[in-house]
Amino acid sequence: MPDNYFARYLPLLIHFLLAGALATALVTLSWIIGYRRPTRAKLSPYECGMTPVGDARQRFSVKFYMVAMLFILFDVEAVFLYPWAIILKDLKAHGQALFGISEMFVYIGIVLVGFWYIWKKGVLDWGLTITQTQTPRARVARAGSEV
C-alpha cells in the first residue's frame, strides 16, 4: 500500500470536520442568543403552517400500509437489476451471457408472478365495496332477507 493512500482522503476529512464544527457553532450560538420564554406558538405542534384539526391519533386504512410495503418490496427487487446489468458485461466476456440473461428472466418472472398474485387478490384495487367482495351466495341470502 502506498504511503499517501490515506492522504487523498484528507480533504474529505477536513470537509466533514468543518461541517460538524460549523453546525455545532450555529446551534450553540442560537442557544446562547435566543429567547428562552415558552410561548403558546412555540409549544403548539407544527403542522406545515396549518392549524391542527382533530386528534393526531386517528386510524388509517390498512391499504396505505400495504401499498407502502409493496412499494418497498418491488423497489428493492428493482435494485437487484443494477448489479446484474453491471455483471452482464463480464458474463458476456466469458461466453455466459445467455445464462445471465435467462437467469434474469427467471427472476423477473418470479417478480411478475408475485405482482400478478397481489393484483388478483385485489390489494391494489381501492374501489371495492362490501357487496362486490361478498360471495354470490351471501348476496342472495342478503337480498332475500331484505324483502
Topology (SSEs and partners):
Blueprint: H1 10-33, H2 40-43, H3 62-79, H4 81-93, H5 97-121, H6 130-133, H7 136-146
Short description:
By secondary structure, the protein is mainly α. It is 67% helix and 0% strand.
Strand portion, in percent?
Answer: under 5%
Low-confidence stretches: none
The amount of helix comes to: 55-70%
Rg, rounded, reads: 29 Å
Q: Please give the largest β-sheet.
A: none
| Helix and strand pattern | HHHHHHH
**Which structural class should the secondary elements be placed in?**
mainly alpha
Count of strand segments: 0
- Please report the number of helical segments: 7
**Span of the ends, CA to CA:** 88 Å
How does this model look, in words?
It is built from seven helices and no strands. The chain has helices at 10-33, 40-43, 62-79, 81-93, 97-121, 130-133, 136-146. It is flat. It starts with 9 loop residues before the first helix and ends with a helix. It has a domain at 62-146. With 147 residues, the chain is mainly alpha-helical.
